[in-house]
Amino acid sequence: MRASRTPKALIADDEPALRAELERLLADSWPDLAIAASVGDGAAALEAIDRLKPDVAFLDIRMPPPSGLDVARVIGTETAVVFVTAYDAHAIEAFEREAVDYLLKPVTAPRLEETVNRLQRWLAGGRRTLLDARTLGSLMRRAADAAAYLNWLKVGRREQVELVAVDDVRFFRADRKYTAAVTREREHLVRTSIAQLAARLDPERFWRIHRGSIVNVAAIRAATQDLRGRYRVTLKDRPEVLRVSAAYGHLFRRM
Fold first, then answer.
1. Same domain, yes or no, for 134 and 171?
2. What is the pTM of this model?
């Protein structure tokens, strides 16, 4: 890329709020970057890339087809690709090993700074990402194998939508038609039943311990058994004591 030309980028994500937030963060971290297009699905991304020839494409892994990985497979090597993903840290290791950059949702300014610095070095040196068919095929297989567990919650606060990382939730508690997601600082009401949440949470990280509650395993301080053989869970940084129903007591029994 010639130094005199303003670099162009495309953002493709099916969540308008996330596209807008990424654009805002990019304006702060890379003021010289021009956002040539912001689209909501893979088909629109392919059309915009073919027409605009952007230097950088920020592609959501999971969006209306074709997916971000499918788009990357056909756009060639003249566009540097940054995958945007909601996968957790364990799944993301696959992307790191392949030397393809990524941003984990919700995107943070410090992490985006690292990406911007890397992209600027690539572009200044005339380098391009080498997304060959073998590399992308490996990524696609790993993405398909990784369960699409819930990693963040969209919580309404007045006219705004707030993103709450699932890992920040200490426990979920059924609250009539809704579910309370309790973090260290406060509670958020989620318009999803606890049964629906249980189906979308990683069972290795979140245990359902009662019909009306799910606990973040990393937030547990101890599980204490009473004289009747029932367990009660105390948390590291919340005062609540959670009751474990008999059906879930096996989770805490010693091997």
1. no
2. 0.54
